[in-house]
Structures are given as structure tokens and as C-alpha cells.
Amino acid sequence: MRRALELARQGWGATHPNPMVGAVIVEEGKIVGEGFHAEDGGPHAERLALLARGKPPRPGATLYVTLEPCSTPGRTGACTEAIIAAGLKRVVAGATDPNPAHAGGGFEVLREAGVEVTTGVLERECTDLNLIFNHWITHRTPLIAAKSAVTLDGRLACRTGESKWITGEVARTDVHRWRRLFPAIAVGAGTVLKDNPRLTARVAGAVEWCPLRFVFDGLLRTVVDKQVPQIYTDEFRARTVVVTTPHGGMGYVRKLRDMGVQVWVLPSATQRAPWPAFRQKCVEEKITGVYFEGGVQLVSQILQDRQLDYYFVYRAPVLLADDRAKPMLNGLRTDKLANAVRLADVHAEALGEDTLTRGRVTYPEKMFVDETAFSLG
Questions:
Q1: pLDDT of residue 147
Q2: Are strands 22-27 and 30-36 parallel, antiparallel or unpaired?
Q3: Rounded to whole angstroms, how far apart are CA atoms 66 and 356?
Q4: CA pair distance 16, 288, nearest whole angstrom
Q5: What is the pLDDT of residue 373?
Q6: pTM of the complete model
Q7: Which of 154, 147, 128, 130 is nearest to 302 (CA)?
Q8: 5 by DSSP, 3-state: which?
Q9: Residue 376: what pLDDT?
Q10: For residue 327, how many C-alpha atoms fall within 13 Å in the half-sphere facing its CB?
Q11: pLDDT of residue 375
Q12: How far apart are the first and last CA of the chain?
């Protein structure tokens, strides 16, 4: 199963809206066929493993697969049919298909055909592999995730604004790995004006890759300045999407579009783009996940509005111990631990001297927003 997971990860970021899946066929303790799902619309891992075998598996062969085999035809045919037709009599699976319409259905089809099925092998790892797909197929909405890189005492930057670099090279490299997984990255206008980021995935040994790049700019402040941000002019500018409101001015909208930049003008009574409208637009465009790298204002606003689904927190062994240093988050009035926001299904790992803690965001029944908190521009 660990080898199947290695294979599945070769489709990292390339299979949306489908999951990553790896499969191996084992005969007498030896792997004789391997496959992984490489791209949307392409053949599934199980079928590729059978093709790699080149002939029907021997009696006693076992198929190891990271995700429950599909039992509906789709575009490539049901994998359960291919498994049964090949004569395989044993299947070992990692995760169950999270789709409520199919969960466990593939296992039932195989068992009814006389195939021995074992489930739940390395289930946590196999499930975590497809955290974006799992959310998308279950909730029919994109996974809204955010990343923060902070000191041990939860500060994003010194009181002067200096923040490069809080975390080390290993952690920063890991950020690019997650950038490659998500189909879209998002920042606020403040981050664009301050850092002029490129917002691409730059992983050693791979070609620079550009996801969709969202800029949340309700007043189109990033267009006013004479120095145009690089994401509006570089070779990937067609993959930049400015999310704004009617308050930004149609003249600036036309200017952006003339430069080849996409603009989503979402109806709003305020200068903030409404989250339900943004999520719905993502659904229409089949954008399954968005990775927010904004500063304290943007991420805090997502949290206050109960829109953050998943959180990545990189923490460095650094202490600022300064009340005026920039906090990681703000805007809530949490008077009791029972009213705290928490992470569930937590994963933690060391990255050089830094640590990454990530997990699904869970909200308390009662959550109080500080009415004096800022508003997002």
C-alpha cells in the first residue's frame, strides 16, 4: 500500500476534480503491475496496473489500491468490472470513496462477484492524500484553505513589518509543494501591494507551474498605483483573477481586462466580495480548492465569516515577545475555551527546525466577532 501511495502522489495537483489514486498488483510477494491516475479523463490506476501486467494475473494475485474502485461507468468504464474480468480474487483498499452516492458501493460489487475485499489499510494516509477531492465531492463546494508562517508566539511579522524570512528553506519549499496541489492560490490587495508576489509553484526538478491566482481587491487598489504588480503583466497573467465589487470602478475593470487579466465582479453592498458568491463562482468554474496566502486581514476575515475549511500553520523556533508585532489572526472575542476555533484530523510534521500543523477547521456553536475589527478592502 505504501508503494501505491507513492504512485498516487505522482499525480499531485494534476487530477482535479478527480482524486489521486495508485494501484499495484502483487503475485507471490512481488509487484508485477503498477498504475496511477495521472490526469482528469485519463485511465484509472487499476486499469493501468492491469495493462502493465500484460496478461491475466495469476491465481492468488492481489490488487492493492489507495481508494475504493469505482463502480459506475463514467468516461473510462467501471474499475470493478475490469477487476472482475481480470479474474482477481483479492483486493486490498486504503480509503473508502467519500462520495455519499457511492461510498462502499464498489466493495459491495466486488464481494458479490466473489472477490475478497480488505479495507482500511493505511486509511489515514490514503484519505489525507485527497483532502481537496474529499471536501469537493462531499460538500459540492471548493475547499477553502489558508497558510500562515509564524513565530512560536504566533506573530507574522515584526512591528516594522519585516517578515522575510520567519521560517526556513525546508518549510518554504513545502509551501510550494502545497501550491502545486491546489488549483488556485489567493491573496489580498495588501499582500500584492506590499510583496508583489509571483504566486507560482517552484519545485526543484519541475517546471514552474502557475495555478489560478486570485487577488481579492474590493476597491481595485492594486490597479491605481503606477507600478503594476507582476501578476498582471507576466507570462501567466491570463491565469490571474481579480475578485472585486462594483465599488472598484468599471474603468479599472476594463484596464485589467485589456491587460489580459480576468476579473470577477461580484455583487456586494460593501467593498468586500461576498463569500457565497465567490464559492458559487468557483463551483461553476470547477475550481475544487483555493489556497489562501493572504496576511492577517484576509485570513482573519475568512475565519470570522466561518468560511475557512482547512488551515496550514508553519511555526518557527523564534520568539518576538512584542505586543506590537503583527499577530497571526485577530477579530474574534473568545472569552472561553469552549468558544475557541479548533483543528480536527490534525497532521503534524517537522520541516528542518520548523514545524507544520495542519487540519480541518471546526467552529464552536458560539463565536463572537469583535465589532471594532477591520474591514477587508
A1: 96
A2: antiparallel
A3: 24
A4: 7
A5: 52
A6: 0.92
A7: 147
A8: helix
A9: 41
A10: 8
A11: 43
A12: 47
Contact 9, 37 (CB under 8 A): no
Long-range contacts of 172-175 (CB under 8 A, 24+ apart): 173/203, 173/204, 174/314, 174/351, 174/356, 175/147, 175/149, 175/293, 175/314
DSSP labels, 300-337: HHHHHTT---EEEEEE-S-----TTSEES---B---SG
Q: What are phi and psi of 278, to 5 degrees?
A: -65, -45
CA distances from 72 to 64, 85, 93 (A): 20, 15, 17
User: Residue 258: CB partners within 8 Å, gap ≥ 6?
Assistant: none
Q: How many residues does the chain have?
A: 377
Beta bridge partners of 215: 187, 242
The helix (run of H) or strand (run of E) holding residue 289 is strand 289-292
Which phi and psi angles does 217 have, rounded to 5°? -145, 85
Q: Which of 34, 46, 68, 293 is catalytic?
A: 46
Alpha-carbon separation of residue 21 from 8, 35, 39, 40, 360 (angstroms): 5, 8, 10, 12, 22
Grid cell 507560482 is found at 200
Q: Are 181 and 9 in contact (CB under 8 A)?
A: no
Spans in the chain with pLDDT lower than 50: 374-377
3-class secondary structure, 148: strand
> Checking DSSP bridges between strand 240-244 and strand 262-265, what pairing results, if any?
parallel
**Cell numbers for 132:** 481537496
* Ranges of H-type helices in the chain: 2-8, 45-53, 79-85, 105-112, 123-129, 131-139, 169-181, 189-195, 221-224, 250-258, 275-284, 296-304
DSSP 32-58: EEEEE--STTSPPHHHHHHHHH-SPPP
| Euclidean distance between CA atoms 202 and 196, whole angstroms | 16
Q: Going by C-beta distance under 8 Å and a sequence separation of 6 or more, which residues neighbour residue 82?
A: 46, 47, 50
Grid-cell match 462502499, residue found? 104
Cα separation of 108 and 329, whole Å? Answer: 46
> CA nearest 262: which of 209, 215, 330?
215
68 catalytic residue (yes or no): no
3-class SS at 268?
coil
HSE-up (13 A, CA, CB side) for residue 262: 13
